[in-house]
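Deliverable D4.2, example record:
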Amino acid sequence: MGTWAIFLSITGIFEATKSNLLKNAHIKYVSGSNEMEQHVAIASSSFFINAAISIFFILLVILFSGWVSLWFHTGAELAEMLQWFIPGMFFMIFFAHMEAIQQSFLDFKGGFAGNFTRQFSFFLVIVGYKLMNKPLDLATLAFYQSLSIGLGAIVLYFYTRKYLHHKFNVSKPWTKKILGYGGYIFGSGMVANITQNLDQLITGKLIDPASVAFYNIASRINLLVDIPSYAASEIIFPKASRASAEEGKEKVKYLFERMVAILLAFTIPTAIFIILFPKLIITIVAGKSYATAAVILQLYMITGIFRPAQNQAANLLNSIGRPALVFIANTGTLAGFLVINYLCVRHWGFYGAAIGNLITTLLSFIAWYFIMRREIDLNMKNIFRHMIGTYQAIWQQIGKALKKASATS
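Output generated by the structure prediction step:
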């Protein structure tokens, strides 16, 4: 389980980093243009960069997967898994490209269908092996994950083909423009994704791979709480890009404060519930053998309250053309995370990475608050006001539903 968690961390960094480079630049430039020829040039140039990066990562896997496997004390197993994931890296070229095209037109149906197919088909494989009571080694599991990405890409194509011009016209100016805008996003995305997985990677290196399994369980539950935040990021990016160009800073500020308020309105109650009953949640999700992860989950949930604001802040600054600032902030966070986590793991051992994660997140939140104060004149009072408004709207909807139910009965 620990080796699988390390594998997911490495492949997740690859997938999310490449997505950050291409998707945001693609969406920003397509949503700001109505000319078909420009759309073709942007899409072609984005696809070319996408393929080049994927080929580079594939070469890294071929050359260095054995060294990475030894470095994490996983024997040859992690190397085999990474090599069996090479087809998945190839399929991701098409999956990521079509997902970016979908979202640049504010269409999210294909992305949902493709990701659902990808995850559900992979889930069915695991269920099938379980029902047949057949052994499933990690290398084979990595290969099935590759195939699931391919299935997802096929489904995504049927939703995306109405936006495809089936022309390939790589433009040197657009390639430079995408790299110029996306370069900082690529760097900040890589830094952010390494930071997000660093607690597990440090634990695997300094303690042992088996300990990573407990962190991975807590991290997966934590990610469920983050899902609304990531979904909101996909929606707010094209809207903020247009608002920045057409309506100015005040509209951008309103979008940010409103979105963060709505996210916090759902995140805070969920986080409090999980903090109060961590062992119950862990037992339901992973079983009693992972009860040790309850403390890690509690610490993660505290950080989960602060993350929506940070996620949206970075996303919004990218959308209004401030990727360099995001890169600097994320690099500073990573540097602090490395130092603090290393010291915490050395001092507290098994729980050190979770404690370091909490300390770093709180410090990072303070830094992001002052950045957003300077960039868009962020006002925390507005966020709390929007939160209250969200709860009032929910209560009104519940009241209307109850009245309707009583009237019909």
